[in-house]
Amino acid sequence: MRTNLSNLAAVRNLGILAHVDAGKTTVTERFLYATGTTHKRGEVHDGTTVTDFDPQERDRGITIFAAAVSCGWDGHRINLIDTPGHVDFADEVERSLRVLDGAIAVFDAVAGVEPQSESVWRQADRHGVPRIAFVNKLDRAGADLDRAVDSIRERLHPAPLVVQLPIGAEDGFTGVVDLVRMRSLVWDGGDGTAVEGPVPEELAVEARRRRRVLEEAVAELHPAALEEFCARSVLSEPTLVAALRDLTRTGDGVVVLCGSAYRNRGIEPLLDAVVAYLPSPLDVPAVRGVHEDTEQRRAADPEAPFAALAFKVNAGSTGRLTCVRVYSGTIEKGDTVWDPGTGRTERVARILRLMADRHVQLDRAVAGDIVALAGLKSARAGSTLCDAGAPLLLEPAVVAEPVVSVA
Ligand code: GDP
């Protein structure tokens, strides 16, 4: 059965990167809630979060194991790979980064860029993972978006592109002005749904000034935007959105949003930004591998020979589950795969999509998917699984190349 490639365009394989305590688990939790994947909001402090499902992890209150969770937003499937923020788990972060197409870097609005956020950021740079930034905890005393953005500019990236202006501060943080659409979003309930309206009069001048700063920064980095800016002295919303998407994907700019995950403020715009700016599996370069000293390239094509990378093995009550990123081809339940590392052939008994609190059985998984395979006995994190008729070894050669530059 031919898979519609346009389905792949609606997939986002996403990681959330952060210094410990910046709010990664809370953001993940709110994503699952906003997307209807869970109906009860879990809280980190009472141990009910659904991504940290290992009891040891709950006890320690930090994310130790990378769990993959799938959710839907605005017609898109978002596969969330939960990467550990703790420095002791750098290997696991590294492995997770290999399978991501994009990431959200979460920062604390009081602390700004912290050492671990910096080291994870550098790792993501090495893997060429496009990122957007979320400055969290704007409700905290001492929170300051501008200062956090300055620390991003000074320590991580020369071109933060701030697309929101906060409304209110600290305890009075109630909403944002969306500088792309020039509309206000105000959260007055606890469920994360914003009431949209015009830009408040008292913020109109500041919002226009910041929109101008954003337009100038984008025009400086993006040739098509520059052309429009020079011709008309302003950027239209479609040009601005397209330029922000290009700059995110090339890594030339970093879109910055803000909010308070704990108070459920800013989550829906963040999901919208994931869909608008971060790449799908079709937008990233073909993955590279080797076979008998010859380089192989595999694009995200469901019709190509099967190739996947295992990035996490969970042995739990449901048996041994091997989390894989499928890079090319299609795999069906009952198929056999070859592990060139061990020379073994293994049979895939079941294919599962990992939701927060349950697993959904699938008949097949295609290029671009992140799924768990049950029935594999010897594959480990880092194993390549491929079609025995078209062998290749992915891991040593999974080196991200720069995404094609903006035309
Ligand atoms: P992680 O270590 O990055 O996964 O961070 P957590 O999501 O576990 O959050 C760390 C602590 O910060 C927890 O006690 C959260 O309740 C709290 N927290 C998370 N987001 C916010 C926020 O927006 N505002 C405030 N005030 N606290 C938050």
TrEMBL record:
One Gene Ontology cellular component:
cytoplasm
Q: GO biological process: what's one of them? A: ribosome disassembly
Give an example GO molecular function.
Answer: translation elongation factor activity
Q: Where is the Tr-type G domain?
A: 9-282
| Compartments, as annotated in UniProt | Cytoplasm
The main place the protein resides is cytoplasm
Where does this protein hold GTP?
A: 18-25, 82-86, 136-139
Q: Which UniProt keywords apply?
A: Cytoplasm, Elongation factor, GTP-binding, Nucleotide-binding, Protein biosynthesis
The UniProt similarity line reads: Belongs to the TRAFAC class translation factor GTPase superfamily. Classic translation factor GTPase family. EF-G/EF-2 subfamily.
Function recorded in the entry: Catalyzes the GTP-dependent ribosomal translocation step during translation elongation. During this step, the ribosome changes from the pre-translocational (PRE) to the post-translocational (POST) state as the newly formed A-site-bound peptidyl-tRNA and P-site-bound deacylated tRNA move to the P and E sites, respectively. Catalyzes the coordinated movement of the two tRNA molecules, the mRNA and conformational changes in the ribosome.
Name assigned to this protein:
Elongation factor G
Question: What gene does the UniProt entry assign to this protein?
Answer: fusA
